[in-house]
Amino acid sequence: MTIISNHKCVRICQNRTCRKQGAVDVLAAFEALSIPGVKIMASGCLGHCGNGPMVLVLPDTVWYSGVLPSSVTLIVARHLLDGRKEGRSDGGKE
């Protein structure tokens, strides 16, 4: 039996390179917002070192690279609340 969930999960890479690029502050910015039906979680390496901080929204499989704490509210408003998936769905690769 497959359980389908309407809940989203936002994973923020906390691996070495992303941390050096400010991922700790990005995670804190997401955690500071109350987003109904969205789970915010720290993640291990998401495989895009050097493009970070990396954020992955599931189950949409939409990637955001180079995320700044100041852009978190825009991602939340547009993607998580309004449903506009403005990141990249190709794994964030150039």
What does this structure look like?
The chain is of the alpha+beta class. It has one domain (8-81): Glutaredoxin. Helices cover 26% and strands 20% of the residues. It has 3 helices and 4 strands, in the order βααβββα. It has helices spanning 16-20, 23-31, 72-81, and strands spanning 8-13, 38-43, 55-58, 62-64. A 4-stranded mixed sheet has the order 2-1-3-4, with helices on one face. Strand 3 and strand 4 (62-64) form a beta hairpin. The radius of gyration is 13 Å and the shape is globular. It starts with 7 loop residues before the first strand and ends in a 13-residue tail after the last helix.
List the helices and strands and how they pair.
Layout: E1 8-13, H1 16-20, H2 23-31, E2 38-43, E3 55-58, E4 62-64, H3 72-81
Parallel strand pairs: 1-2
Antiparallel strand pairs: 1-3, 3-4
Structural class: alpha+beta
Strand order across the biggest sheet? 2-1-3-4
Distance between the termini: 37 Å
- Work out the strand percent: 15-25%
Task: Output the CATH topology.
Answer: Glutaredoxin
Radius of gyration over alpha carbons?
A: 13 Å
For the record, what is the CATH homologous superfamily label? Answer: Glutaredoxin
CATH architecture: 3-Layer(aba) Sandwich
**Shape label:** globular
SSE order, one letter for each helix or strand: EHHEEEH
Helix content: 25-40%
Give the biggest beta sheet: 4 strands, mixed
**Can you tell me the residue ranges where pLDDT is under 50 for at least 5 consecutive residues?**
none
Number of domains: 1
Write down the CATH class: Alpha Beta
SS field, number of helical segments: 3
What is the multimeric organization of the chains shown? Answer: single chain
- Number of β-strand runs: 4
Look at the structure and give the mean pLDDT: 88
